[in-house]
Amino acid sequence: MALSPLFHPNPWRRVLVTPADPDAIPERPRPPGPDGQRSRRPHADARVAKVRRLIETTTLTYSQIAAQTGVGRASISRWSRDFNWTRPFDAPRATDRMPTRRALQRKKLRTLAERLRQLAERHIDELERAAAIDPDKLMAALQLLKMARLEAMGRRRRRKPLDTPAKTGQQWMDEQAAIRTALKEMHRGGVNIDAAPPEAVEMVIDANLPPLGAAFGVRGR
After folding, report:
1. Where are the domains of the chain?
2. Which of 100, 151, 197, 215 is least crowded, fewest Cβ atoms below 10 Å from its Cβ?
3. Banded model confidence at residue 89, pLDDT cuts 50, 70, 90
């Protein structure tokens, strides 16, 4: 009785070959879903992979990538945001990721609120370590707490729109108006500006000045 060998003399081997050009991979039809129907996803995995490769390795704009892949700019933008795809340093940024004047102003005000809180805590620590209470320092700490609370709460009154560029020759007047508005907001919130630390007042004024310049970079097309 002939016995089959335990190990085949010529075993089969499976080799995975990856094409040099990822775009040469053919798009297969979408597999059926659990209900037996074809998937409603409009783009195959190979096309999504191609979009990602162009996003992360080229400096093409979204419009150019859309023309090459047949995927809409809205889908490309949504995929880049949802999957955290990163672009090269010199690639144009998408319009939905460009900072606006209003967004930068909100960031400045959030930073101001945190700096005022830290300054108030430092004044309170100095008062707690002091042998005797200094009325002036106590008043300054109270004003700092009020200022920090107001900035943390945000503005209740409507601000002057910052998205429109300043008129020619009006920059100085706009700055003065912004300073008066900031000080009025503090006074309306119960802050005694004369008793507040000068550095805190300067921080409030600086954070509420209109931003200079309207250009923050080249937008993606």
Report:
1. 22-29+41-96, 99-208
2. 215
3. confident
